[in-house]
Amino acid sequence: GYTWADVASxxxxxxxxxxxxxxxxxxxRAVGRRVAFLVVRQGAATVQCxxxxxxxxxxxxxxxxxxxxxxxxxxxxxxxxPVRGTTQQLVEIHVEKLHCLSRAVPNLPITVDDASRSEExxxxxxxxxHVGQDKRLDYRVIDLRTAANQAIFRIQCQVENVFRQVLLxxxxxxxxxxxxxxxxxxxxxxxxxxxxxxxxxxxxxxxxLHKQMAICGGFGRxxxxxxxxxxxxxxxxxxxxxxxxxxxxxxLRDHYTELCDVVDKLFVAVFDHLNTACxxxxxxxxxxxxxxxxxxxxxxxxxxxxxxxKMLQEAGVHVDAMGDLTTEAEKxxxxxxxxxxxxxxxxxxxxPSAVRPFYTMPxxxxxxxxxxFDVFVRGEEIISGAxxxxxxxxxxxxxxxxxxxxxxxAAYVDAFRYGAPPHGGFGVGLERVVMLFCGLGNIRKTSxxxxxxxxxxx
Length: 458
Ligand code: 4AD
Known about the structure:
Blueprint: E1 3-4, E2 18-31, E3 35-42, E4 45-52, H1 57-62, E5 69-77, E6 88-102, H2 112-115, H3 119-124, H4 133-138, H5 140-143, H6 147-169, E7 173-174, E8 180-181, E9 193-196, E10 199-203, H7 208-216, E11 221-229, E12 242-251, H8 257-277, H9 279-288, E13 301-304, H10 305-314, H11 327-341, E14 345-349, E15 372-377, E16 380-387, H12 392-401, H13 410-414, E17 423-429, H14 430-437
Parallel strand pairs: 1-2, 4-6, 7-11, 13-14
Antiparallel strand pairs: 2-3, 2-5, 3-4, 5-6, 8-10, 9-10, 11-12, 12-17, 14-15, 15-16, 16-17
Helix pairs in contact: 6-8, 6-9, 6-14
């Protein structure tokens, strides 16, 4: 009999162990008529299998199309020369039985080898095939098999996991809010409208309204991991039409900076965890997409918006002190902060009220500014947060002033008429966190099946 084994842990069974593995035929090479080498891949791990001897098994192996799914049973042995390859095992399998469970088409639209190459490699050797982003995404199920992609989505899962773990330990409760709602939660633009049994409705642009209503419902601290829908019109490297939101909302004692304290604890824990527990995954990504490790400190730098504006102006960048920052200005500020403070992770606090959503609390000392903040990684926003208005009259007035139809969010405004504590929260874009931590440059790389303004398939 044979024992089922994982390719990644094949080194632990002793030499001579009889194992069975199932995986994809990553490479097939015939040597004469009686020997074939078959590389079997499982996740990001591969093992070389030697198919030798008569009975036609070597010929059968040589005829396998790449990416076909096979069962291999045989004996673990140590090759005379170690098999080369980054995730290759130091052992090989001498095959006694070979079955093909699913035959891949002989002409794959893209190959995992081509999709695994770094831009540098392709540039160096002109003969190599460059697989463009669109083609990768068209054939995403093949593209996802690269070592870098296997690592990216394992890292994404870890970010989500640490987010949950840290917030649970801080007394937050995980909730799920409706994604079919009656009115836009972030204000008019970029909303997918639909008919809810004849009634106008939309896909939630965030859990904003209902996470606040959960606070009104007596939960002191809540979080949610769930889909967020934005009808983004323009194609950019960092906007998706559907992404995963990591949201938190909590009552406040004195000041909105209590939110910054939670963000601080949370993200230092996320980054530390990635750097230690996910070192192998980061390496796999770096092999295809080289990047410098993120610079961050134990306590996160907090700058006021005014300070940020001043730094930009001193550097000769033209910015409106009471307006929003452009993507380029944010990027520039990220560089200035890195030069001056040596960190690529920081918070910008006290934004002008005019550039924040209608539910944002104005500062008590100067209502032109708000109790809000954004958080940046490598000069790009990953989080926005704020204290919320919990007075229903002020909330309705701010909504109307920003052109939000109060009628469509009446139940939300009313929620604050039955007793509502001071509170605030923040929202994180999961795909952005992974994209920016790993310096990937395009959010489509960190979405399993991205939905961008043009793409609804696969
Ligand atoms: O800045 P946003 O729009 O803020 C909110 O949704 C608030 N309700 C959050 C809060 O609690 N105050 O979105 C939050 C985060 C952004 O910082 C960004 O990381 C991400 O969500 N994000 C997007 N990610 C991908 N594609 C898009 N189109 C995104 N829009 C925002």
